[in-house]
Design goal:
With 396 residues, the chain is of the alpha/beta class. It has two domains: 172 residues, Rossmann fold; 198 residues, Rossmann fold (3-Layer(aba) Sandwich), CATH 3.40.50. Helix content is 37%, strand content 17%. The protein binds adenosine-5'-diphosphate and 1,3-bisphosphoglyceric acid. Keywords: ATP-binding, Cytoplasm, Glycolysis, Kinase, Nucleotide-binding, Transferase.
Length: 396
C-alpha cells in the first residue's frame, strides 16, 4: 500500500475521498468540524508536496437528488478558513464543469465537489459513476474512515481505476489506534458503552467480552438490561426483543471473568425534554409515566472509580440524553474522569465516534483524551473484526 509519506504528489491531482459528513444547524453552519480538521495533515501534505486536491464527500442521506440542505457548498467558506486558502466548488460532482475545474486546477489549489450522494449511483456502488469520478484525478487518496464501512462508488469501487492508491493519514491513524486497543491494550482495559441501541452495538459488545477487564453499560441501552433482570423502567428506552440477549451477555461476561457494570441509579424525567420534572431513583425502580434520561450520582461514582484505575479505555455512546443540558451531567462526568485517567494514570483513551465524540469535543475535552475517532459505525465494524470495503479497496 502506498502512503502519503512515500508517494510523490508533485504535479499530481489527488482525488481525495474525505468524510465531510458533518452536522449543520438550521443556518447551515457546521456545529462540529472534527471530521474536517482531522484531514488537515493529509491535505496539507499533498498541497505542500506540489500536488492539488480534489475533495469528494457525501453529506447526510439525500434521497431525491440535489437538495439545498445537503449541499456541500455550505462547507466552502469554512474550508477556506480552515485550510487558509480559497476553495473552488463544482456544483455537480461529475460532468463538464467538474471536468473543467479539475483540469485547470494548479498545484496548491483545492477543489470541492458537490455531494456525491446527489447521484443514487454513489450508494449503489455503480461502476460507470466511479469511473467518471476517477477521471478527475491522477491518484486516489482514501481518507474517509467514517465511510469506509460502505461499499460505495467513491469509497470502494473507484480504486480499480487507479494504479496509484494512497492511504490517508486519517485512515492510518484510525486503524493504528483501533489495533492498539484490540491487540496491545494495557490492563486494566475498560470499555464504556452507551447510547441508544443495543442492536447496533451487539457484535462489538460480544467481541469486547473477549478482550476487556471491565465492561460498563450506561445510557439508553442500560434500561433493556434492567428490564430483562426484572426491573421497572417506566417508559424508558426499551428494545423488548433484545432482553434475552442482555441476559446472555451478562452470563457470558461471568463465564469470561469480565466485570460487567450496570447503573445503580438513574435520573428520570416525566417528559422527553430538557425542562421536564426530574428526580433520581434506584435503577429498576422507575415509576410508570417516567423515563430514565441520565445516569445518577451513585452510578457516576461507581463508573468513575473503575475508569480512573484503568490503563486502556474505549468509550462509545453517551450516558444519557446529553443533547439536553439537564441530562448531560452523567456524560460530562464520565468525560472528565476519562480525561483524568489519561492525564494522571497515563491511560490510553479512545473515544469512538458519533455522538460520544461530539459530547467530548463540545465539553472541550477533545484534546485531552488520547484519540477521538472520526468513525461511528465504521469504527465499530472495524473493531468487530469486519474487513471494511474502503480499506480493502486500497489493498486491491
Ligand atoms: N436514556 C436515554 N434515553 C433516550 N435516548 C438516549 C438515552 N441515553 C442516550 N440516548 C441517546 O443516544 C443517542 C446516541 O446513541 P448512539 O448513536 O448509539 O451513540 P454514538 O453515536 O456515540 O455511537 C443520543 O442521541 C442520546 O440522546
Ligand atoms: O456519519 C457517518 O457514519 P456514523 O453516523 O456511523 O458516524 C458516515 O459519514 C457514514 O454515513 P452513512 O451512515 O450515512 O453511510
Amino acid at each position: 500500500m502506498k502512503t502519503l509519506d512515500t508517494y510523490d504528489f508533485s504535479g499530481k491531482k489527488a482525488l481525495v475521498r474525505v468524510d465531510f459528513n458533518v452536522p449543520l444547524n438550521e443556518k447551515f453552519e457546521i456545529t462540529d468540524d472534527t471530521r474536517i480538521k482531522a484531514t488537515i495533515p493529509t491535505i496539507t501534505k499533498i498541497l505542500t508536496s506540489g500536488g492539488a486536491c480534489i475533495l469528494m464527500s457525501h453529506l447526510g442521506r439525500p434521497k431525491d437528488g440535489p437538495t439545498e440542505k445537503y449541499s456541500l457548498k455550505h462547507l466552502v467558506n469554512p474550508l477556506s478558513l480552515i485550510f487558509g486558502r480559497p476553495v473552488k466548488f463544482a456544483s455537480d460532482c461529475i460532468g463538464e464543469q467538474a471536468t473543467e475545474l479539475a483540469a485547470s486546477l494548479q498545484p496548491g489549489e483545492i477543489l470541492l465537489l458537490e455531494n456525491l450522494r446527489f447521484y443514487k449511483e454513489e450508494e449503489k456502488g455503480n461502476v460507470e459513476f466511479a469511473e467518471k469520478l476517477s477521471k478527475l484525478g491522477d491518484v486516489w487518496v482514501m481518507d474517509a474512515f467514517g465511510t469506509a464501512h460502505r461499499a460505495h462508488a467513491s469509497t470502494a469501487i473507484i480504486g480499480q481505476f487507479f494504479t496509484d492508491k494512497v492511504c490517508g493519514y486519517v485512515m492510518q491513524a484510525e486503524i493504528d489506534n483501533a489495533q492498539r486497543l484490540l491487540e496491545h491494550a494495557e490492563r486494566p482495559f475498560t470499555a464504556i458503552m452507551g447510547g441508544a441501541k443495543i442492536s447496533d452495538k451487539m457484535l462489538i459488545i460480544e467481541r469486547l467480552l473477549d478482550t476487556v477487564d471491565n465492561l460498563i453499560i450506561g445510557g439508553g441501552m442500560s434500561y433493556t438490561f434492567s428490564k430483562a433482570q426484572g426491573g421497572q423502567i417506566g417508559k424508558s428506552l426499551l428494545e423488548a426483543d433484545k432482553q434475552e440477549l442482555t441476559l446472555e451477555l451478562i452470563e457470558k461476561a461471568k463465564s469470561k471473568g469480565v466485570n460487567l457494570i450496570l447503573p445503580v441509579d438513574t435520573v428520570i424525567a416525566d417528559d422527553f425534554s430538557n425542562d421536564a420534572a426530574r428526580q433520581t431513583v434506584k435503577a429498576g425502580q422507575i415509576p410508570d409515566g417516567w423515563e430514565g434520561l441520565d445516569i445518577g450520582p451513585e452510578t457516576v461514582a461507581l463508573f468513575s472509580d473503575i475508569v480512573s484505575k484503568s490503563k486502556t479505555i474505549l468509550w462509545n455512546g453517551p450516558m444519557g440524553v446529553f443533547e439536553f443540558p439537564n441530562f448531560a451531567i452523567g456524560t460530562d462526568a464520565i468525560a472528565k474522569v476519562v480525561v483524568k485517567a489519561t492525564e494522571e494514570n497515563d491511560a490510553f483513551s479512545l473515544i469512538g465516534g458519533g455522538d460520544s465524540a461530539s459530547a467530548v469535543n463540545n465539553a472541550g475535552y477533545g484534546d485531552r483524551v488520547s484519540y477521538v475517532s472520526t468513525g461511528g459505525g465504521a469504527l465499530l465494524e472495524y473493531m468487530e473484526g469486519k474487513i471494511l470495503p474502503g480499506v480493502a479497496a486500497l489493498d486491491a
